């Protein structure tokens, strides 16, 4: 079964499978629309649930049952009915069942393993929005922080975000992070594999050296060599994660990752597209947080839903920029008589008790960007550690996490981001043959390094980047480390090693604040 994406709302016209090959390999493939239809070109039964004056594509969320269908009910109904259809058509019961999805589809997959442990033998969850309501708080937080840098308004009278971090400034930020952390894994190659060790203690001095005027890399704002002091402060505030006025964490911190800049030759839905701008349009905010996110935050992640028009001075953008982290943030946990399930109830897949899934023999593979711009890699790593503790340190018996540095959301970026087919083989081998994956080989599709050969970047980056090559994705918390000889674009020349983190060291491995507002920075 294929997981959904975004706010769902449309059926796959030609569902080939989440990796794009399953149907051709002889699998039966199922997909669903999350229980509602908001694609104007694809109405089901003549009905199209979208209202620009009342929530836009998230209009469905005014209905409590539609919220449940989107959050979890559609997964169970689609899987159960699909199995019945398969059995009727072939005259045989299904032997193995799998679900694969990315983003909200990754959340679907994790939700299935937790709420419906009997449904699937194998689960692949990619870049999962497993705690989407909390991640939505970070969307609002990030835009408000960037809004303090804005020097003009958009067509809705809200801060115009694209000018706050032009692409050349994100390139500077990436160079600063790499200067601090690239060598921590033993190889300067444009990839921070030792991401837990890339802490604020290391990154802040690098950002200081790239600060206009006071640093050592120029003095011209937006000139492609330095960041303004206000930009540096904004990055620090964003990467620390959203907090309320009492300093209580509401979501998660973020790993410092070079993927904050998406090179033009390695496109993907990275930090820039989510937070700053997608396609530039004069005086229009196009960042995904302010389009898709701005619809979901008031309609889906508030209880009761706050019904607003899509555009205008009191529209969805305005709700994001006026979002109150003391009074609005707790509403992700709120319930009412009309809406008896909070958004955390029907949307979140945060349980760490996977004993039912483990007991039925289920296997789970989670893969995630270290920092993809919308979901914190630190959050999924923290969930995995807590789940491992709940499972008495035996999580790897049935569940494994693979982290991907530099990868944009669900693929792309200056990364070894092509591994979906290998991931499918890994889960089927684990379920059907008992062979647990120790590594998953991932490929980079750039013919040459997407990093410049000089300037802001260490020249060794362009030399050692795995262009047209492979690297191993390692079972968390292990990281890929160069063996010291051989081509740096060959996974065979890399070992998966334990970085050896211990309490009290200069890393953030033991930061387990779960973002429920009971931990302070």
Portion of residues within helices: 25-40%
**DSSP strand (E) fraction?**
5-15%
**Alpha-beta content class:** alpha/beta
Integer tally of domains: 2
Terminal Cα separation, in Å?
A: 40 Å
User: Rough shape?
Assistant: globular
- Give the neighbour order of strands across the main sheet: 1-2-3-4
Order of helices and strands: HEHEHHHHHHHHHEHEHEHEEE
Please tell me the overall pLDDT.
Answer: 92
Give the low-pLDDT segments: 517-521
Q: Sheet with the most strands?
A: 4 strands, parallel
* Beta strand count: 8
| Continuous helix count | 14
Output the radius of gyration. Answer: 22 Å
Structure description:
- The protein is of the alpha/beta class and 521 residues long.
- It folds into 2 domains: 23-130 and 367-497, no CATH class; 134-333, no CATH class.
- 30% of the residues lie in helices and 8% in strands.
- It has helices spanning 64-90, 104-115, 132-147, 167-181, 200-209, 229-240, 271-275, 292-299, 316-321, 343-347, 355-359, 377-390, 420-433, 459-464, and strands at 98-102, 122-126, 363-369, 399-404, 439-443, 470-474, 479-482, 494-497.
- The strands form 3 sheets. A 4-stranded parallel beta sheet has the order 1-2-3-4, sandwiched between helices. Strands 5-6 form a two-stranded antiparallel ribbon. A two-stranded antiparallel sheet has the order 7-8.
- Helix 2 links the parallel strand 1 and strand 2.
- It is globular and about 70 Å long.
- It starts with 63 loop residues before the first helix and ends in a 24-residue tail after the last strand.
- The relative contact order is 0.14.
């Amino acid at each position: 079964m294929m997981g959904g994406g975004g706010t769902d709302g449309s059926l796959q016209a030609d569902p080939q499978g989440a990796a794009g090959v399953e149907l051709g390999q002889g699998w039966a493939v199922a997909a669903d629309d999350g229980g509602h239809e908001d694609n104007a070109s694809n109405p089901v039964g003549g009905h199209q649930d979208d209202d620009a004056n009342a929530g836009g594509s998230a209009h469905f969320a005014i209905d409590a049952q539609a919220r449940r269908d989107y959050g979890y009910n559609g997964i169970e109904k689609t899987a159960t009915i699909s199995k019945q259809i398969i059995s009727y058509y072939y005259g045989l019961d299904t032997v193995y069942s799998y679900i694969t999805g990315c983003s909200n589809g990754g959340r679907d997959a994790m939700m299935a393993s937790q709420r419906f442990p009997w449904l699937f033998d194998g689960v692949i969850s990619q870049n999962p929005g497993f705690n989407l309501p909390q991640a939505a708080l970070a969307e609002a937080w990030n835009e408000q922080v960037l809004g303090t840098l804005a020097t003009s308004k958009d067509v809705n009278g809200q801060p115009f975000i694209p000018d706050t971090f032009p692409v050349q400034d994100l390139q500077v930020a990436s160079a600063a992070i790499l200067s601090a952390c690239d060598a921590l894994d033993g190889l300067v190659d444009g990839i921070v594999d030792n991401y837990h060790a890339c802490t604020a203690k290391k990154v802040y001095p690098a950002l200081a050296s790239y600060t206009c005027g006071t640093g050592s890399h120029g003095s011209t704002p937006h000139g492609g060599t330095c960041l303004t002091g206000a930009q540096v402060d904004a990055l620090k505030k964003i990467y620390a994660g959203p907090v309320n006025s009492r300093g209580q964490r509401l979501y998660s911190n973020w790993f410092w990752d070079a993927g904050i800049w998406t090179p033009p030759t390695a496109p993907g839905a990275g930090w820039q597209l989510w937070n700053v701008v997608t396609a530039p349009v004069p005086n229009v905010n196009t960042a995904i947080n302010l389009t898709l996110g701005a619809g979901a935050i008031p309609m889906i992640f508030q209880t009761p839903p706050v019904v607003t028009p899509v555009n205008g001075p009191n529209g969805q953008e305005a709700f994001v920029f006026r979002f109150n982290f003391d009074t609005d943030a707790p509403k992700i946990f709120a319930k009412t008589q009309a809406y008896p399930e909070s958004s955390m109830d029907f949307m979140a897949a945060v349980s760490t008790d996977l004993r039912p899934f483990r007991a039925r023999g289920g296997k789970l593979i989670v893969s995630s960007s270290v920092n993809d711009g919308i979901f914190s890699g630190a959050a999924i790593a923290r969930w995995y550690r807590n789940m491992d503790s709940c499972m008495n340190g035996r999580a790897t018996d049935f569940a494994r996490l693979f982290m991907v540095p530099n990868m944009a959301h669900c693929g792309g970026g200056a990364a070894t981001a092509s591994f979906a087919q290998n991931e499918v083989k890994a889960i089927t081998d684990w379920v059907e043959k008992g062979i647990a994956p120790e590594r998953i080989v991932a490929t980079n599709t750039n013919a040459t390094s997407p990093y410049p050969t000089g300037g802001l970047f260490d020249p060794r980056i362009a030399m050692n980047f795995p262009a047209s090559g492979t690297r191993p994705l390692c079972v968390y918390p292990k990281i890929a480390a160069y063996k010291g000889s051989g081509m740096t674009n060959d996974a065979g020349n890399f070992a998966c090693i334990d970085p050896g983190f211990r309490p009290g060291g200069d890393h953030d491995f033991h930061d387990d604040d779960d973002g429920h507002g009971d931990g302070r920075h």
